[in-house]
Structure formats: C-alpha cells, structure tokens
Specification:
This protein is of the alpha+beta class. Helix content is 40%, strand content 10%. It is flat and about 80 Å long. 42% of the residues are buried.
C-alpha cells in the first residue's frame, strides 16, 4: 500500500507532542497583542507574563479543551486559556479595583489587580485535564497528572504522541471540576508573581485563587475579578462556536463547499478587501445585525476561490446564496427570501444585501469588533430576488443581535452609535437617528435632586445618545458649573479628560459608559498604545486614570470652550 494513502476505518495515532516554544510561537499574534496591552519592557513582560505562559504551554501541551464542544482541536485548551487571559486583562482596564484607596496607593494596586485578572483567566480552565481526561502514551502508560506536568512526563517517556480518553459522569451525577485548578496553580504561577501581588495587598492573591477555583467569598458578592473572567469566558466560547466550520454544512468527502465559502468571506474581511461601515463598504454592521452587499461580494468570493484552485465552486451568485442559507450562515425572511434592501448612512440608494444569522460567524475572525452604526434598514424592506430594484413596502426592521460578541480584550456593551455623526457636526440628528430607542442604562447617575441634569447636553447630541451617556455628561456639566465643586475633568493636551472615578461617582457602571463613548467615536486613543482607551491625566493636583474626549466633541457637548 502506498505510504500516506487514506484507509478506512481511520487509525487514530493520537495527538502530537509539541515543544513548548513551538506551541507558544503558534499563538504569536495573540501574544503580541498581549505584549502591546501590557505596555512594559521585554524583561518585565518575560518575568510576569512570558514565564507563566511557558509554564501553561508545557503543563498541557496540545490537549484539546473538550471532546466535542468548544476548542476541541489539538491545542484547544492552550488557546482557550490564552484567549480568556488576554481578553480578561484587556477588560480589566475599564475596572477600578481599589476605588477607596488613595491616588498613590491605587497606582500601586491597579496594575497588580489587572495582572491577577490575567492569571485568573489563564488558569481558569486548567481543571479540565485532571477531571475530564485520561492521557496516555501509545503503549498505554497513564499520565500522573497530579505529580508532573504533561510536557515533562512525555519527555521522560520518550514519545512524540499521546492519546486522550474522555471521562463521562454517571447519569444523574456531576463530575467534580473547577476547584482542582487551585492545586495546579502552584506549578503554573511562579512564587515571584504571587509575591508581587501580595506586596500590593494581602487581598489580591486569595481573590485570584477564589476565582480560578470558582469559589465565592462567603456571603459577599462576586468580586470584579470573577465577574470579568466569567463574562469573558462566555464570550470566548461563543466566538469559537460561531467560527466552527462544522456549523456550516456537513463535511462530506469531496463536496463540502460551505466551509470554503465562509473561509473566503473571512479572508476578504481580514485582508482589507471588504471594509466595514465605510463608503462603498461590502459589510455593514448595525444594531440590526451584519449585512453583506451581495452582488459584488459574490463575484469576489468566486474569484478568490478560483485563485485558490478550489474546484466545484458554483458561478451563479444565487446558488451561493442557497448554499450559505441552507448552511444557516445567512438568514431568510418569513417568505423564505435571503435578500433585504439596506440604505447605509449617507447613501442615496438602496442596496441588495444578505444578513448573517450570527454576526460572529464573520466578525469573530477579526482582531477587533467594529463599532455598529445605529441602523442600515431605515424604510428598506426584504426583497424576493436580487433582480428587484425597488424596496417593498416598509416592514419592521429585525433586531437579531449576536448572543455574545468578541473582547478581549474589552469584552462589549450596548450603545447608540447614531450620535457619532451628530457629534462631529452642528447638524441635528436625522429622523431615523432620532427615532432610534437606545437601550436602557444600567443606572442613572445618583443626584440629590429631581432635576433632569441630562438637559444640560445640547439637543443635537442629547437626543441621539443613550440615556446613560446623556445623564453622565449632563451631571458632569452640572458639577463643573457649581462653585466649589471639585471635579476630575478638564482640558488635556489631546482633548478633554474625564477621570474614571468621576464617572463612577455618579453611581453608574463606568465600564459601560467608557464602552458607549468609545463606540460613538469620541475617544482619543493612547498615543503610545492605540488599543488602550485610558490615559494618565493631571487634573488639579492629582494624577488620575482618565478617558480623553476629542476636543471638538467636548466643545459641542458644552464641556469646554474652544
């Protein structure tokens, strides 16, 4: 028989054993993003982050995370751990962990809390190998998981492959789980890292261990660290689920086109051929969902697959739509049509488009999720065929949104992007923008009177933003006008700075506010780290953590004068 020829039934040789450095190199893109977010020199990064990442890579190697669920391929557990760690660390930037501490003390504590969030995310899934799997060499020797890391053991055995047997709980019982991670943490987290946390506060390391073990601190509410890791974990898993090729058509030998079609669309989006929410864009992402202008997009998909040498690709755009609709990549309306007319912002014409059933199927492949516009439907309606040029009578716009959206590294929140255009001009919002009903905020700012402080915000902007943004900005203006009232806000070399503590002082979710103004396009990014939203700002006699709003927008809002 020819070497390499496929046989049936297939022979499972197991999972390859990979050197830790090779495994880390396979995730270089994500680790580079972590390095940028950490913002430290190479020596410090290696001491705090590189060492623990290397320990995890050697401890679990190419183990999958699950048998048939999330991250179930070789190396899935390492990727899952790294994604949760990165996006949790990214999300922690919008959280104040030591709100009651003084400014100088917070400068020492906040970096340690964010580092603890990274460690918690990295270790949170490591209970899986010792509670859900039996790992062995091809000759049947079992890995003593409590005694030695997988990499060290495989090197001792002199093998280049290992096998995984999955353990299932008996009916009506639940297999013990997350608490086992605490035992493994001493092999993963260096003692120097724990000492670094302990020197900041005696609370940080215990909170870290509570989080990775899934333990709540008695009768008290879940810590911010636990909330971040739990939320990010759910979103990372949802993103992986949306990206799985198995979701889009059955992998039949020789005829599985659907994954190729979806892969082509992801490549066109990631290589810049398809831009999002820009003039002449193929993709439009709004609060109603993700839409693809189909006529030109279909030609580009076909051309890319032909260039790849993929055979059997239909040349008719209608056939492609049918394939992707049957694979549940695109939605259909009540009449069974996948087509819908959209009118993007500032466009004079309606465009024939298709709507993704789950935006994460495409957006999950991007490094950063784009900011959604308020609406692209307007008065547009579904159409029955691509040949239709006029919109059908108006029907209510669908509002299907993804169950969860991608972080990390800050996992997202609802917003009202319609204000983005209004914020950059003196024109009032269009009727479509004014008609958008923004989602209710988590809470309105705490005030001692019944006045509508949001009325301080000019109508041209106030009617288009969410109530949360309107009330926070209005309350800030109110405080700035009050004599003797000290506020953490003022002009900044890059714009107008607002301290995060000032926002939190209004009794609202500061993270939610920052995310909303970011989606509106109001924020000035950090000049040295474009992915960061926060700056160190000297406000009065204090150096505080703040966001910086673009000066023209701050002027339009009434926060400052030119």
């Amino acid at each position: 028989m020819r070497v390499g020829a496929p046989i049936y039934p297939p022979v499972d040789r197991g999972v390859a054993f990979l050197d830790a450095e090779e495994l880390i190199a396979s995730q270089s893109e994500l680790i580079s993003r972590l390095r940028l977010a950490a913002g430290c020199d190479d020596t410090t990064f290696e001491r705090l982050y590189g060492s623990v990442i290397r320990n995890v890579a050697d401890a679990i190697n190419l183990l999958p995370a699950t048998e048939s669920g999330t991250h179930n391929g070789a190396g899935g557990l390492f990727r899952l751990s790294l994604e949760i760690a990165f996006f949790a660390f990214q999300a922690s930037e919008a959280t104040i962990f030591a709100a009651r501490a003084g400014v100088e003390q917070r400068r020492e504590l906040e970096p340690r809390w964010r580092y603890a969030t990274f460690l918690a995310g990295l270790c949170s899934e490591l209970y899986r190998p010792i509670t859900q799997m039996l790992v062995s060499t091809p000759d049947g020797k079992l890995w003593p998981a409590y005694q030695v890391g997988l990499g060290d053991w495989l090197r001792e055995q002199g093998t280049d492959h290992f096998l995984v047997r999955w353990l299932t709980a008996a009916p009506g019982t639940q297999r013990p789980g997350q608490g086992a991670t605490s035992y493994l943490a001493h092999r993963i987290i260096p003692a120097t890292s724990l000492q670094y946390l302990h020197e900041g506060s005696i609370e940080i390391a215990p909170t870290l261990f509570d989080c990775i073990a899934g333990v709540r601190a008695g009768q008290f509410e879940v810590s911010p660290l636990q909330k971040i890791v739990s939320s990010v974990r759910d979103k990372v898993i949802a993103r992986d689920e949306a990206l799985k090729p198995q979701r889009y058509g059955k992998l039949r030998v020789g005829t599985h086109l659907e994954p190729h079609l979806l892969d082509a669309m992801r490549r066109l989006a990631t290589n810049g051929t398809w831009v999002i929410n820009a003039k002449k864009a193929r993709l439009w992402y709004s609060q109603e969902g993700l839409f693809l202008v189909w006529k030109t997009a279909a030609k580009e998909i076909i051309e890319l697959l032909q260039k790849d040498g993929t055979t059997g690709v239909p040349q008719d755009p209608q056939t492609l739509v049918e394939l992707l609709t049957n694979a549940q990549v695109f939605e259909v309306d009540g009449a069974g049509s996948p087509y819908v007319m959209i009118r993007p912002p500032e466009s004079a014409n309606d465009l024939i488009a298709v709507k993704f059933a789950n935006p994460l199927a495409l957006l999950g492949a991007l490094a950063d999720e784009p900011e959604p516009v308020a609406s692209v439907l307007g008065n547009a309606a579904p159409v029955s065929a691509p040949a239709t040029t006029a919109a059908a009578p108006s029907v209510p716009a669908t509002t299907d949104a993804p169950a969860t959206t991608s972080p990390p590294p800050v996992p997202p929140a609802a917003s009202a992007p319609a204000a983005a255009q209004a914020a950059t001009s003196d024109a009032p919002p269009t009727p479509a923008q004014a008609a958008v009903k923004p989602p209710a905020p988590t809470a309105a700012p705490n005030r001692n009177d019944e006045r509508d402080v949001g009325a301080n915000v000019p109508d041209a902007l106030g009617k288009a933003v969410t109530p949360l943004c309107r009330d926070v900005i209005g309350a800030l203006i109110d405080d700035m006008r009050s004599q003797g009232q000290k506020v953490q806000a003022g002009k900044h070399p890059l714009g107008f700075a607002i301290g995060i503590e000032q926002v939190a002082g209004y009794g609202v979710d500061a993270t939610r506010f920052v995310e909303e103004v970011s989606r509106l396009g109001w924020l000035v990014p950090h000049p040295d780290k474009p992915s960061r939203k926060f700056h160190e700002a000297q406000l009065g006699n204090k150096l505080v953590r703040a966001i910086v709003i673009k000066l023209p927008i701050a002027t339009d809002l009434g926060l400052t004068t030119p």
